[in-house]
Each structure stands twice: as C-alpha cells, then as structure tokens.
Specification:
The protein is an alpha+beta fold. The protein has four domains: 119 residues, Alpha-Beta Plaits, CATH 3.30.70.1730; 62 residues, Ribosomal protein L10, N-terminal fragment, domain II (Molybdopterin biosynthesis moea protein, domain 2, Alpha-Beta Complex); 43 residues, no CATH class; 56 residues, no CATH class. Helices cover 45% and strands 15% of the residues. The radius of gyration is 41 Å and the shape is flat. It starts with 5 loop residues before the first helix and ends with a helix.
C-alpha cells in the first residue's frame, strides 16, 4: 500500500470539515490572478467566506469525503479543473456570485492569452509624440502614422478576434494604448446549497431581477383576482371599491336617491331643468334668469359664437304650457 503524506491527509480533512460545516460550497476559477491581488481578495472575503486552495486531486478526495455527510456535494466535482479554489460560506449563492463579480477588474493581456472579446483599436489621436513608438505600433499591426506632429491611428481595426490568442508584440503595446482586454478576478463556476447545484448561468442575473419578477407576478395575480371577482386578502379592497363605484353609477342611472347618489342626482336634475327652462321665453324668475345666464356664459378668453339666422329659424318654439308640464314631470 502506497504511503500517503500526513500533510495531504490533514489538508483533505480540513477541506472536508469546512465543506460540511458551511451551508454553501462553491468552486471558483482563479486562473491568471496575480499573487498580491489574490491575497487582497482573500483578505476582503475573510469575514464572509473561507477561500482554500490545494491540488485538484486532493480537492476531489475532500469533496467525496464531505459528500458522505452531505449527499449531493459530489455534483461539484466536474467543476474542479485548471486553477481553482473552493469557497465555503453561509452567504447564499446569489450574493456570493455578486461578491465574486465585485473582485473582478480589467487587466492587460499577456502573450498567448485568449481574447474574451474582439480587441479593437479606435481611430484617432494617441498620447504619443513622434518617435520610435510609431514603428512599434506598426509592427504590432496597428495602422499608426504621424500627422500634425502627433501619432494617430488612421482607422479603427480589430487587432485580435474573440477566441484567438494575443500575439507577443501586441501584448507589449496594448497597455501603452490603455487597452486592457482581460478581466482578472474570481470567476464562480458553481455553488452548492441544500442539495442543489447552482451553475453560473443561473446565478448570473441582474441585481433585483427576481424581486422585480415577483412584484410583477403579484400585481398580475391581484388584477386577475379582481377581474374574476375572487375575494382574497389582497383583492377584497379593490373589489369593494369597484362594487361601490358600479353601485353608485347604477343608482344615479336609475334615479335612486341615497346618501352617495343624491349629489349627482341633484346636479343632473338641475342641468336638465336649466336645459328645459332655457327654451321658455319671457321667464320672470330673476334667480332662474341668473342661473341661465351663468350657464350660458362663455368660457374665459372664448368668444361666444353668434347663432346663424337659419338655425334660429329652424329652432322649434316651446310653449309655456309645454315647459310647465316638463318641469312638473321633472320635479313632481
């Protein structure tokens, strides 16, 4: 039987214990993070999480050991590859993902790095004065020239397409142009909690996405409940308001006097009375004349249209007897 170094056993036990005790365990990619920056990240996470690194084979063994007490942890094993670390924390997976994203920053490309997106140089002036650097730019494939005593980029150009390697000459010159195409930081591959593995695609959502979805669903459900007259704690208020408005409208239409309809009914009766009274010539009631004058007064800054003679001739005359009969029917 092959001898296993004691430090390996201790490391496996340490990792397994941490993964068992913390509700959330995640695997993060730490490729390309400089050592000083990695130390700063670990220090920043110290209050919220444990960040542990070791050989991948030891990490896989530790996951198997921890899975004996927490079934499902073995789902993390396919994520263990390349340069990675394990994070154990009480923080929920979504908050942990946001925390990991906050560790990321732009960084220069090294020779051989794979471009995450097209690397583009923009047309325009550069901060360089004429000198040997124009040759370096041209050697790196950048369309540079001297114009008006300055070095300029004559046209926009894609220097490296997405997914291709960054050449050595270009990697040297890009930082001088303040082009930092790479992103350095902890990249969360997946997190395990309560038997569920949350992959990056699930965790990578805009801040507030789920609260907004839940709020929209609640509003839509309430609207549906009101529409189908389904009484619940959330819909009873709008339903009562709707019923009150409809009952009031029906009461006014049917001329049923109540505390809530008497105002609209009187206003309607007055308007109809004035409409009838306006057709009766020679009324002697001064108060009625004032009301008719106020009702007929034009709005401010508006000229009252003069009736055409033809319309006056066509306007039917109403006798006093007919008007009196109408008023009697209205208020009788």
């Amino acid at each position: 039987m092959a001898h296993v170094a004691s430090w390996k056993k201790e490391k496996v036990k340490e990792l397994a214990d941490v993964m068992v005790k913390n509700p959330v365990v995640a695997i993060v990619d730490i490729h390309g993070i400089p050592s000083p920056q990695m130390q700063d990240m670990r220090h920043g996470l110290r209050k919220h999480a444990s960040v542990m690194m070791t050989r991948n084979n030891l990490l896989l063994i530790a996951i198997d050991e921890a899975a004996k007490e927490r079934p499902g942890l073995e789902k993390l094993k396919p994520l263990v590859a390349g340069q990675c670390a394990v994070i154990a924390t009480p923080m929920n997976p979504f908050k942990l993902f946001q925390q990991m994203e906050a560790t990321k920053s732009a960084a220069p490309a090294k020779p051989g790095d794979i471009a995450p997106e097209d690397i583009v140089v923009k047309e325009g002036e550069t901060p360089f004065k004429p000198g040997p650097i124009v040759g370096e730019l041209q050697k790196a494939g950048i369309p540079a020239a001297i114009e008006g005593g300055k070095i300029v980029i004559r046209k926009e150009k894609v220097l490296v397409e997405k997914g291709h390697k960054v050449p050595e000459e270009l990697a040297k010159i890009l930082p001088k142009l303040e082009i930092l195409p790479m992103t350095v930081g902890m990249d969360l591959r997946g997190a395990f909690e309560d038997g569920i593995l949350y992959e990056k695609a699930v965790l990578d959502i805009p801040e507030g996405y789920y609260p907004t979805m839940l709020a929209t669903a609640a509003r839509n459900a309430t609207a549906l409940g009101v529409s189908i007259v389904y009484p619940t704690k959330q819909t009873i208020g709008p339903l009562m308001g709707k019923a009150y408005r409809e009952a009031s409208a029906l009461g006014v239409k049917a001329a049923i006097p109540t505390k809530d309809t008497i105002g609209p009914l009187l206003a309607k009766a007055r308007a109809e009375m004035l409409a009838i009274a306006s057709k009766v010539p020679g009324l002697e009631d001064d108060r009625l004349k004032q009301q008719l004058s106020a009702a007929a007064a034009p709005a401010p800054q508006e000229k009252k249209a003069e009736p055409k003679k033809e319309e006056e001739e066509k306007k039917p005359e109403v006798s006093e007897e007919e008007a009196a009969a109408g008023l009697s029917a209205l208020f009788g």
